[in-house]
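Journal club side-thread
Mid-discussion, someone asked how the predicted structure for our own chain would compare to the paper's figures. Pasting it here so we can look after the session.
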Amino acid sequence: MESVVKLYSLSYSNSKTYLVALLFVAGNIALPQLFHLAPQGGMTWLPIYFFTLVGAYKYGWKVGLLTAIASPLINSALFGMPAPAVLPAILLKSVLLAAGAGFMAHRFQKVSVLALLAVVLFYQVVGTLGEWAFFADGFYAAVQDFRIGIPGMLLQVFGGYAFIRYLIQK
């Protein structure tokens, strides 16, 4: 499953960068609210990362970075989730996700399930190590995404692939 796609690398001087990032931030606000209706929905489905992945992969690391930073900060300010105590770890993983997705898209100029899997594993592994080293109460807390967030990682890989392909057709 691989598709050649029209990928963009928008610059910070382009107003479209901010408009697209704003749309992805809105998605990263709405999607977690939906998943938080289910018990442990946020921790299981990891919805705050979904539109960061799509935005960075399709429109470049700059859109991804804006989405990665704004989404957790706005969600935390408006809804208290992520909680301030875990906000630094979420920000770390979000920024790693934006950087990884932007890099893969730029490097390979195509979208594939394998590429998205590599991006998700990259940000989760490196982010977990960073969380364990700097933020978490211990290793068990740092590996929480790997303990219960597997469905969310699969959603990011397969849902991200489908959504990026959908954006290609528009």
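Post-session note: The beta strands are 2-4, 110-112.
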